[in-house]
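Exercise 7. Given the components listed, write out the predicted structure of the assembled complex. Treat all entries as one system.
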Amino acid sequence: GQQVMQIPQYQHVQEGEDFTTYCNSSTTLSNIQWYKQRPGGHPVFLIQLVKSGEVKKQKRLTFQFGEAKKNSSLHITATQTTDVGTYFCAGASGAGSYQLTFGKGTKLSVIP
Amino acid sequence: NAGVMQNPRHLVRRRGQEARLRCSPMKGHSHVYWYRQLPEEGLKFMVYLQKENIIDESGMPKERFSAEFPKEGPSILRIQQVVRGDSAAYFCASSPGARGTEAFFGQGTRLTVV
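Answer.
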């Protein structure tokens, strides 16, 4: 079945440093979504990427979807303590796909 | 417009008891998904339902687990004869459409089996 791998599993950064998490799928995706889960909270949708090579920005967050639609990345510029949490990518594949396969997430800690 | 409502937020069950987890999707959403999350793990897909229909239950354990989404009322995830390994956070998500559209998550039910 489809597998979605995410690295790194943990990342500790000093406040103000940049952060990147990478997501790789074993199969070509129809779209990829990113979610953020704060400690003790629930996943919250951040963004969806659909097109090959697509790049989207949300303030300090930059999301990319690879040309082959099998990988994606999330980059945060100048991290803040409010960025703390676990970032998940979730891929959907196939024309009739409705199942999101989640990566295991990257847990970000920001040291003030 | 209330978000996805899950209850209870916390549930403690003894081994062998039954656990019933409820999920009311967002208004206007007819697609419901259940996910399980173990500590320090990602979200594992369990089941996808539309009103009165199970569309995909490929992530559900074959025994003891069942899910329904009746015409009226919330979606129910039922776990019979719970075991310690069932302890986890169970999240419900809803979406307005299928095919990998954005999912809105509830706050989850944290099940502890003692």
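Discussion: Chain B touches chain A at residues 31, 33, 35, 40-45, 48, 55-56, 58-59, 91, 93, 98-108 (CB under 8 Å). The two ends of chain B are 36 Å apart (CA to CA).
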